[in-house]
Amino acid sequence: MNPAPLFSRSTFRFSCLALAAASLCAPLHAQQAHDEEEESADEATLQTVAVTSARAQGLAPQTVEAGTFRGASIMEVPSTVNVITREALEQQAVEGLYEAVRNTAGVTRQQNAGDTYDQIVIRGMEVQNRTNYRLNGAMPIMNFSQVPMEDKERVEVLKGASALYYGFTSPAGVVNYVTKRAGKAPVTSLGLRVNEHGSAVASVDVGHRFGAQEQFGLRVNAAGGVLGSHLDGVRKGRRAFFSAAFDWRASSRLLLKADFEYDKRRITEQAAVGLPAAVNGRITLPRPVDPTRLVGPAWADFEATTINALLRADYALNDNWALTVEAGHSEMERDRRLPIFRFARAADVATGQGFIRGNMQTIRLNPTWGAPSCSAASKAALWSTASPWA
């Protein structure tokens, strides 16, 4: 009897197939391991790629021109600065200072109306009309007439510590106006602004660069028309405005700039209502006056002419230092007939009886750098007796 074989033919055939499969899989696993090693090596050698881009100004500004921060990033300025860009000015249809800064925290208007000009306060402190307003971060300009907005690229409000940058001024802050300049893309636009009070002011804005290397730039703005009033029975005012901003890239290191502004306007001014004297430490407020009624005389006009001129030269000494030289002149002439209604006695608040006293003011303002000079002549007189509520 023959003993049984240790391996049958079928078993041997299966073992050979398994061995062949194992021999085929071994190179496959080795190849996969090799590929994984190469992938890990490639991943280790990859470098981090950072993509950066400067966002357009839009409603969120990138730089500041007020104080000593000329062109500095707004994130690096160690002061509270609010910037109203050109896009924001256009979207709000801004015609004056307060309309530009009315959404700025801590800024309010300190007068009864803004028809003639806007006098503002910052954080409860008065902004001085002679020293706290600047053009292009440098020249002091007068705020005794509405500042034109057609040629302004932006409005900056530097809050607090303004005396550190501009000498003897109110610590409330500084309002800085930055003018438009010719950019790489040419600009030509016409506009017409009207409102429900009868105002109609046409404007033109033209900006181009020229020269063999476009080293010259010119931006011209002009506006003019009639100024309506919310008051009934008053004649329409008039306005004329012109500005020009010129720059010349004289060399790779030298940049010259020149700015000129002219604004003339006339409008009938509403009378102010003075508060009565305090009785036992209390002031009785009068009833509100009809906002459409002219309290003062119809000939109480406000007329103002403003001229600003500024020259600037920037010379790059090296990549880190630059020399800036500036010179300018600002003057203003204002003829104002300011009516003020006052109560003769505190008891007259109930009847509304009183009198109108006014000042005929003639002001000539010719400021120099940091030291504005003013010549003014005023004449006070009793104009009439009246009641704003009659």
Automatic annotation (TrEMBL):
Q: Using the record, list the residue span of the signal peptide; answer none if the entry has no such feature.
A: 1-30
Asked if the record carries the keyword Cell membrane, the reply is: no
* SUPFAM superfamilies in UniProt: Porins (SSF56935)
Principal subcellular localisation of the protein: membrane
Q: Which GO MF terms does the UniProt record name?
A: siderophore uptake transmembrane transporter activity
Q: Which family does it belong to?
A: Belongs to the TonB-dependent receptor family.
Q: Provide the Gene Ontology terms for cellular component.
A: cell outer membrane
Which source organism? Answer: Ottowia cancrivicina
Q: Does the record carry RNA-binding as a key word?
A: no
Domain of life of the organism encoding this protein: Bacteria
What compartments host this protein?
A: Cell outer membrane
Q: Which residues form the TonB-dependent receptor plug domain?
A: 74-174
- Protein name per its UniProtKB record: TonB-dependent receptor plug domain-containing protein
Keywords in alphabetical order, please: Cell outer membrane, Membrane, Receptor, Signal, Transmembrane, Transmembrane beta strand, Transport
Topological relation to the membrane, as annotated: Multi-pass membrane protein
